[in-house]
C-alpha cells in the first residue's frame, strides 16, 4: 500500500488530504479537517483531480478532529460541493442545546427570545452580548454553529456521521485507527465543553495574548543559554481549551510505518491514550499538534514519538522551539508558513 499526504497552506488551520492506494480498484481518499471558511476552494482544487484519477466523485472519509473554526470552517462548503458522494464523516457532536439556553437565561435574567433558526446559537449569541463579550463571540459561536449546521446537513443528505472513538473502524481499512480521545477522557471533559466554560476560557486566553507574546520574546533572548527543548518544557501548558483536548487522534499504518494526525491535541490528550508510550513510539510521520504551539508539546513526548518527519500547519501559533526540539531529536521539519503547500513523500 502507498500513501500520499497533501497539506495546503491554510495559515493557522488544518486541512490534510490523504490518498491511500492498495491497487487501482482499492483506493481511499481521506480529508482531515477543512481549514477556515475561505479555504474550501483551495482544498477542493486539490481533491477534485485526485478523486477523478481514482474514479471517485467524493472523499471516502472526512474527519473533523474538533470543531474550532480553523478546522471545521471550510467543511460546510466542501460537504455541499460533494454532497451525498461523501462516504462517511467522523466528528464529535456534543449536545449543548440545554446548556446554551440555560447560560443565556442565567446571564440575561429574563425570558430568552429565540430569533435565529438555531435556538442554541441564538442563546450563545445572547449570552455573549449580555456579558460584553462580543469580540469573543466568533471563537465560540461560529465554531459551534458550524458544527451543528454541518451535522444537520450531513444527516439531511443521508451521509453517515460517526463519532471518532478508539472502537471505531472504517470498513475494509484496518490500517486506520482512532487512538484518542477515549470515551472516558472525552466524558471527563464534558463539563469544560459547556459553552459557559468555553467562553470563559477563550476570554482568558485572548486577554493574555500580549503576555504570551512577551514570553516568546524572552524565550528568544534566552535561546543562547537554553536548548529549544528546555525552552519548550519551561512553557506554561495551561491555556489549552477542552475542545482542543478532545481532538481526534488518528493513526494510519503503511508498510509498518506509523503516520499520526493530531488535530489540536495536547499533552493530556496523548497521555490518556491507553499505553500511550508504546502507542506513540517511533512515529514515522507526524502532523505536529496545534500548529506547532508550545502549549501542546514537550520534549518527553517528542522523544517518545521520535518522528522521522514532522509537518506543521502553523503561522501565528507556531513556536520555533517546537521545531528546534523536533530537529534536535532527528526529525525533518517542514512548516506551511515557511515552505508553502506541503506534500509527502
Write a structural description.
Helix 1 runs parallel beside helix 3, helix 4 runs parallel beside helix 5 and helix 5 runs antiparallel to helix 6. About 9% of the residues have low confidence. Helices cover 41% and strands 17% of the residues. It has 345 residues and is an alpha/beta fold.
| SS summary, helix count | 16
Q: Beta fraction of the residues?
A: 15-25%
Sheet with most strands: strand arrangement: 6-5-4-3-2-1-13
Mean pLDDT across the residues is 84
Unreliable parts: 96-117, 131-139
- Shape estimate: globular
Cα Rg = 20 Å
String of helices and strands: EEEHEHHEHHHEEHHHHHEEHHEHEHEHE
**Proportion in helices:** 40-55%
Number of distinct beta strands: 13
Question: What is the straight-line distance between the termini?
Answer: 14 Å
- Can you summarize the main beta sheet? 7 strands, mixed
The helix-and-strand class reads: alpha/beta
Layout of helices and strands:
Blueprint: E1 2-7, E2 16-23, E3 26-32, H1 40-53, E4 61-63, H2 69-72, H3 75-82, E5 88-90, H4 97-108, H5 119-130, H6 137-156, E6 160-162, E7 176-180, H7 183-188, H8 195-207, H9 209-222, H10 228-233, H11 242-245, E8 249-254, E9 257-261, H12 267-271, H13 276-279, E10 285-287, H14 299-305, E11 309-312, H15 320-328, E12 332-335, H16 336-339, E13 342-344
Parallel strand pairs: 3-4, 4-5, 5-6, 9-10, 10-11, 11-12
Antiparallel strand pairs: 1-2, 1-13, 2-3, 7-8, 8-9
Amino acid at each position: 500500500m502507498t500513501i500520499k499526504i497533501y497539506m495546503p497552506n491554510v495559515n493557522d488551520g488544518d486541512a490534510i488530504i490523504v490518498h491511500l492506494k492498495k491497487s487501482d480498484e482499492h483506493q481511499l481518499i481521506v480529508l482531515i479537517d477543512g481549514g477556515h471558511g475561505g479555504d474550501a476552494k483551495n482544498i477542493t482544487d486539490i481533491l477534485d483531480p485526485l478523486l477523478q484519477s481514482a474514479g471517485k466523485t467524493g472523499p471516502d472519509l472526512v474527519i473533523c478532529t474538533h470543531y474550532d473554526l480553523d478546522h471545521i470552517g471550510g467543511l460546510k462548503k466542501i460537504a455541499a460541493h460533494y454532497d451525498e458522494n461523501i462516504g462517511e464523516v467522523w466528528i464529535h457532536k456534543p449536545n449543548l442545546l440545554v446548556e446554551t439556553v440555560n447560560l443565556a437565561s442565567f446571564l440575561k435574567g429574563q425570558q430568552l427570545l429565540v430569533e435565529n433558526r438555531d435556538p442554541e446559537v441564538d442563546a450563545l449569541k445572547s449570552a455573549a452580548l449580555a456579558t460584553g463579550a462580543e469580540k469573543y463571540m466568533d471563537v465560540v459561536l461560529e465554531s459551534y454553529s458550524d458544527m451543528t449546521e454541518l451535522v444537520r446537513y450531513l444527516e439531511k443528505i443521508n451521509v453517515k456521521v460517526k463519532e471518532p472513538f478508539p472502537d471505531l473502524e472504517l470498513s475494509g481499512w484496518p490500517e486506520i485507527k482512532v487512538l484518542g480521545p477515549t470515551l472516558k477522557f472525552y466524558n471527563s471533559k464534558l463539563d469544560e465543553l459547556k459553552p459557559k466554560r468555553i467562553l470563559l476560557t477563550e476570554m482568558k486566553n485572548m486577554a493574555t495574548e500580549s503576555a504570551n507574546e512577551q514570553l516568546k520574546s524572552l524565550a528568544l533572548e534566552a535561546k543562547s543559554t537554553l536548548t529549544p527543548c528546555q525552552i519548550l518544557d519551561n512553557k506554561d501548558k495551561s491555556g489549552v481549551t477542552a475542545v482542543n483536548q478532545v481532538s481526534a487522534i488518528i493513526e494510519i499504518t503503511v508498510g509498518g510505518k506509523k503516520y499520526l494526525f493530531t488535530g489540536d491535541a495536547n499533552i493530556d490528550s496523548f497521555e490518556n491514550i491507553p499505553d500511550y508510550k508504546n502507542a506513540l513510539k517511533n512515529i514515522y510521520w507526524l502532523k505536529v499538534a496545534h500548529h506547532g504551539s508550545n502549549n501542546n508539546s514537550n520534549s518527553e513526548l517528542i522523544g517518545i514519538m521520535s518522528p522521522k518527519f514532522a509537518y506543521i500547519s502553523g503561522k501565528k501559533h507556531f513556536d520555533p522551539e517546537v521545531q528546534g526540539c523536533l530537529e534536535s531529536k532527528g526529525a525533518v521539519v517542514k512548516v506551511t508558513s515557511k515552505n508553502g503547500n506541503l506534500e509527502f513523500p
